[in-house]
Amino acid sequence: MNRQAAIAFVNVRGSPTEQARLRYLLDGEHPTPEVVHQLLAGQREDGGWSPFWATDYSSLDATCFRLAKAEQLGLAANETAIRLALAFLAHRLRDDGSWEEEEHVAALAPPWATPGNLASRLYLTANCGFWLAAFAETSENAHQAATYLQAHLNDDDHLPTFLHAHWLAGGLWYRLHWQTEAKRIFNYLQRQLPALPASNLAWLMTTLLLAGAPTTEPLIEQAASLLAQSQEEDGRWPSEGGSERDVHATLEAMRALRLCGYLV
Question: How far are the Cα atoms of 15, 16, 83, 144, 177 from residue 19, in angstroms, in the given order?
Fold first, then answer.
């Protein structure tokens, strides 16, 4: 792995927020108020953020995305915007312990956020539950989400949803010390690793490491080995979401590998 090439790639291609993420990653330098303001801009009165597909709607998925960005910069639950976002997620929890986007945006929502679809509901439940647990481990809402997901865990150790929902669910269960469920998901994910692109390997690793999983967990060890080998010659790790997301993928890869001792 070429550490200096990765740093140079982010410095040349990264936005001010991404460069701030790099400084926090390498040196623990907290972002400036300007960077924090830019990151949290557009928060709506209810504490949520609008997605690209519905600009006048507070989306669960878009709010989880902002929480992930905030965590990458070292922001904590005592930040006012974070506290409001967590309250927004808690308010949108359904009675059965799940989360789903509102029905009136069904025609606009992308497949992973479509209301009325079980796969989307499981993904959003894993995502919202994970971030509530990540910022406040004792959250009762996170436990409700964990229970809802557990009820949909199949005999072959997977959920009827998108693959990335599995590491979010696994991270939620691990964070809440539901070791049996977490281990079942980890075993399932380990079988999927060879087919995962670099950006997904990094997302999986950072999710589980943030949840407290050890670097000696076989799933993480294998993912780290694959990720370390997938760096491009110019220093980047490519994103399956397109080249405009390569800086984000590279930062996530650097963070995951640093946590595992590959990047010092």
Answer: 6, 5, 25, 37, 34
d(CA 163, CA 123): 9
Return the number of other C-beta atoms located less than 10 Å from residue 50's C-beta: 16
With tokens 């009675």, the residue in question is 95
Instruction: Give the whole-angstrom CA distance, residue 144 versus residue 236.
Output: 39
Q: pTM of the entire structure?
A: 0.95
The dihedrals phi and psi of 228, each to the nearest 5 degrees, come to -60, -30
166-177, pLDDT tens digit by residue?
Answer: 999 999 999 999
Q: At which residue do the structure tokens 């009820």 appear?
A: 151
Between the alpha carbon of residue 256 and those of residues 200, 223, 231, the distances in Å are: 11, 10, 13
Sequence-separated (6 or more) residues with CB below 8 Å from residue 47: 58, 63, 84, 85, 86, 87, 88, 91
CA distance 237 to 251: 9
Residue 264, pLDDT above cutoff 60: no
Instruction: Give dist(CA 47, CA 61) in Å, integer.
Output: 13
Q: How far apart are CA 108 and CA 93, in angstroms?
A: 21
